[in-house]
Every structure is written in C-alpha cells, then in structure tokens.
Amino acid sequence: MAPLDQYLIADRNAEIALARSAAPTSISRDATVLVFEKSGYQTVVEGKNGFTCLVERSWMSPFDRPEFWNPKMRGPICYNPAAVRTILPYTLNRTKLVLAGLSKAQMRESITSAVGKNELPMPEAGAMSYMMSKEGNLGDSVGHWHPHLMFHVPKTDDASWGADLTGSPVLYDNEHRDVPEPETIFMIPVVHWSDGTAASHQEID
Length: 205
What we know:
Elements: H1 12-20, H2 25-28, E1 32-37, E2 40-45, E3 52-56, E4 75-79, H3 81-86, H4 88-99, H5 104-116, E5 128-131, E6 148-153, E7 184-189
Parallel strand pairs: 1-3
Antiparallel strand pairs: 1-2, 3-4, 4-5, 5-6, 6-7
C-alpha cells in the first residue's frame, strides 16, 4: 500500500463531483454522496432517491489484480437502493480493513471469515450500479475504460448470464476472480458516458 495521503482527494467538492459523474444527472443529483477521508468513507450529501454515489479506491479490485494498491485509481460508482443495502457494505468493510493496516492476505482471510459467519449480506435481487464516468481512472492499463452498468448477483458462473459469448453484451472478468465477497459481477457496456457524450466501442477489450 502507498502512503494513505496518496489515496485522498484534497478537494472535497471535486470528489463529490467525481462520485456523481458515475451516473446520469437525473440519478446522481438526488443521490447520497460519500467521500473517502483518513477515517474512512463519510456521508457528505444526504440524498432522497435511495441511490449512493462514491469513488472507489484500488483495494476494491479483485485480490489478484496487479493494481490492487494503485493510488491513482479512482472508480466513480453509483449504487441503486438494493446495492446500497447489500453491496456498499463490501466497500465499507474492505476500507475498514485497509485503514486497520491489514495486508492483502489478512484482508482476504477476514472477509472469508465474515462471509462464513453471514456477517456480510448476500446481493439483494435487483442490485446494480452505474459506472459511466469518463473522468474515472480504473487503472494504468485501462484508464477510464468504457461506460458500463454492473449487476451484482450471488456467486454463479458465466454461463448463467451468457457472459463473454460471441455476440453477447454481457461481460465477466475471466482473468481476475479472486473476490472473497459472496457476489459475481456481470458488466454491460453502454454507448454513452454519463454526460451524454458517445463512447467508442474500440475501448472495449
């Protein structure tokens, strides 16, 4: 892990704007917004539509991803109400473990133990999130990648959604699956960024 200060965004308003850029304004303008501080994520805007927006840091990556500790990563995301209840706790829990100084191995062990004790929720039916910001940085290898929606379901395999088959719009990250939380994430790229500008399909790989 890099020094904690490298994961912070000094300008709170800038982080709020980045978090909100995850989804179209019609959703994000009425969402709750969290920002990351030295003590963890804090609510700085109380929303009224049940959505929550924040900027994920690199430790929300799969544990086998090389950029797990990359301090430059910024992943704007907006969770719908079902995901706020059952997926956002994963982010808050991992962040708590990071701030406690745990290593990756210790974090994985702690999460696996919590899942075994039913201390982390299963994804609720309908849990999904927006990642449509062209201002984000999902890592040195992909940059802002492509606007997409994510669907959070209990652990399953690619075939259950027809993911990664020829002609299917559903994607699943086959290379990095080391995620101890009880979820599988399927991604569906969309054609526009949250600001309405067109995205290039050449960015998908």
